[in-house]
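Request: Show me your protein:
***
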Amino acid sequence: MSEVSRGDVAPGPGTGSPKRGAWVATLCWIAVALEGFDLVVLGVVLPALLDEPTWGLDPATGSLISTAGLLGVMVGALGAGPLADRLGRRRAMLWTVISFSVLSLLCAFATGPWTFGALRFLAGLGLGGVLPVAIAMVNEYSTPGRGGSSTTTLMTGYHVGAVATALLGIWVIPAFGWQWMFILGTIPSALFIPLLWRYLPEDPPPAATSASGPRAPRNPVAQLVKDGYLPSSIAFWTASFMGLLLVYGLNTWLPQIMRAAGYGLDAALAQLLVLNVGAVLGLLVAGRVADRIGVRPAVLVWFSGATLFLALLAVRMPGVGVYAGILLAGVFVFSSQVLVYAYVSRHYPAHARASAIGAASGVGRLGAISGPLVGGALLQAGIAYPWGFFAFAAVAALGALAVLAVRRADAGDEAPATGAPADPTPGPR
């Protein structure tokens, strides 16, 4: 780590050399891709778990297992942000990746649903910490004025991981069984952790004293509720709740909903794949749009698009039409949530950035928990198709309303990129 001084501080966008920023962006992208694989793998293996003769699962029990994992993710997200702000990004990232990799591997050897659910909860503690740390780091090392595209590019990793999960599941589960999804998914982590250890910058916590400014408050979490930030925080948490409800509801239950609509398992898994391909395409576009028109208008456009295309999926379309509709839904649904994170990362001061992202992600996990529960309840009631898509469309509309409630800031957290860095401590009006 000779290239990175222990005295470096990451106070805001544009920190560090381009070479260091490239390493941060690459390593954080890989970490998020591994997280995406591990979070989506449950939706891929769930149909096989429901058919496991000795486990006796039904959709309600499957929802409980999903909930256990997401509770772990929520706790991990809420805890990792403040720890990263106080103790440093590198240390937090290493421990989150190591912990979820080991515990996910153990899921392959679970002998029943209760053991499996407990392991998913423990793995979730590490999984929840990846995103707040990664988003904070890429924003601190990004090119000035490109925070929106840096965040959305980072989040393509999540969906590349999700696409890899769907592709691997189509081949692995019928041939070898669901357990091998967890075994094979751990191999990239084993190769990645040494790279993370060697090349991720070892910065001190952003709350430390810097040469250019005073010591930041000891408790970065307090910043989220004082100095006029509380109304915005509540609005962000609500938007994140809605966005994550959509992400996890669809990624967990889309295959089963489409099976209820009359599609076979292979077609349903292919549709999950198309949904996540659309997500990657949407992220590549959404960040650039946010950099041009401002992150606030962009997130409003994306939540509105999600509302429209989810409602259209309730209309049965022939042939390629259903795949086109799912692709467009993926373009807007997943990017809406990521743009919320981009908005959060520019709205709060640097010393509380990871805490703000962690809070939005952690509180939003209640929506992630609700998504699978809503989908499971609709499936149990036999009305998942078409009413599930109307329900998800209403959730997207509520997300747009929550973003409208965010208090506008004095500095450039909502403005189009101009090539200059935004004020790191804008403060809401």
About this structure: Residues 1-15, 204-216, 417-427 have pLDDT under 50 and may be disordered.
